[in-house]
């Protein structure tokens, strides 16, 4: 086959696949600017004839979407920061510090990867119920403060750091915390960006655990708020699409803005591990 023809065929297939993947998102965005009831016409319009912002005004004015958005930002941001602290410390310890039972404990952690997260939700809920953490922000945040995958990613990347650099710092009298903050942490920037994106996306899109943990609408996140709207309103496709845009656009923008750092962290970690 002609190389140019093969290249054109591959590019055409890639563009076609991208168009198929992006079409639902673009139509969701278009519907969010349509007047109420417009999208229910047959055939459904692909673009609003007269774009309006009424759906977004109703979301923030009557549906309380502003509160749900703030809750999602607060919970996702806190989980990301806490997860970075614990995962970075634990991953570095498993990679560079020597202590009794290190390998056995790490193998036990890896074994937890095959256990579905849903299995632990009922025991967690009962524990939080007795501790008075049901329907609280802290109750939503605690399970996401550390993850086996995050510890694994940091460990794999940190194993590639030169031991001579750390030993030289110890000889100069630096403590382990000083070594971690001043030497190790700057070298872990690629995996920090990767872990931050993964954690934030997971926390932002989480639906099952907040649904179990949060009983009052005052603490609802965006996914729970959208689900609540879907149950209460049988007609209002345009408003639902506006809510979906608010849910998707922030995380999509975050991923696109940090895509290079995200991929670098994954690739460098896989090579150095």
Automatic annotation (TrEMBL):
InterPro entries: MetI-like, MetI-like_sf. The chain crosses the membrane at residues 65-94, 106-128, 140-158, 179-204, 240-258. Coiled coil: none annotated. Keywords: Cell membrane, Membrane, Transmembrane, Transmembrane helix, Transport. It is a multi-pass membrane protein. Gene3D superfamilies: MetI-like. Residues 69-258 form the ABC transmembrane type-1 domain. It is found in: Cell membrane. CDD domains: TM_PBP2. Belongs to the binding-protein-dependent transport system permease family. This is Carbohydrate ABC transporter permease.
């Amino acid at each position: 086959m002609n190389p140019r023809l093969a290249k054109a065929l591959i590019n055409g297939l890639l563009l076609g696949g991208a168009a198929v993947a992006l079409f639902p998102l673009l139509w969701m965005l278009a519907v969010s600017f349509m007047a109420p009831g417009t999208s229910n016409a047959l055939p459904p319009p692909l673009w609003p004839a007269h774009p309006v912002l009424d759906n977004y005004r109703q979301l923030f004015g009557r549906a309380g979407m502003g509160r749900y958005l703030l809750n999602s930002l607060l919970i996702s941001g806190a989980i990301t920061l806490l997860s970075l602290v614990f995962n970075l410390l634990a991953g570095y310890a498993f990679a560079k510090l020597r202590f009794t039972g290190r390998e056995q404990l790490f193998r036990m952690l890896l074994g937890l990867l095959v256990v579905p997260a849903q299995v632990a939700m009922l025991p967690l809920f009962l524990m939080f119920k007795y501790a008075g953490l049901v329907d609280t922000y802290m109750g939503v945040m605690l399970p996401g403060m550390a993850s086996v995958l995050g510890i694994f990613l940091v460990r794999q990347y940190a194993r590639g750091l030169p031991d001579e650099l750390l030993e030289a710092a110890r000889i100069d009298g630096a403590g382990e915390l000083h070594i971690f903050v001043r030497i190790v942490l700057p070298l872990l920037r690629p995996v920090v960006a990767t872990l931050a994106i993964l954690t934030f996306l997971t926390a932002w899109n989480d639906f099952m655990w907040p649904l179990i943990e949060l009983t009052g609408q005052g603490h609802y996140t965006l996914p729970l708020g959208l689900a609540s709207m879907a149950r209460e309103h049988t007609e209002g496709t345009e408003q639902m699409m506006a809510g979906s845009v608010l849910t998707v656009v922030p995380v999509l923008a975050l991923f696109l803005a940090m895509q290079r750092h995200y991929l670098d962290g994954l690739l460098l970690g896989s090579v150095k591990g």
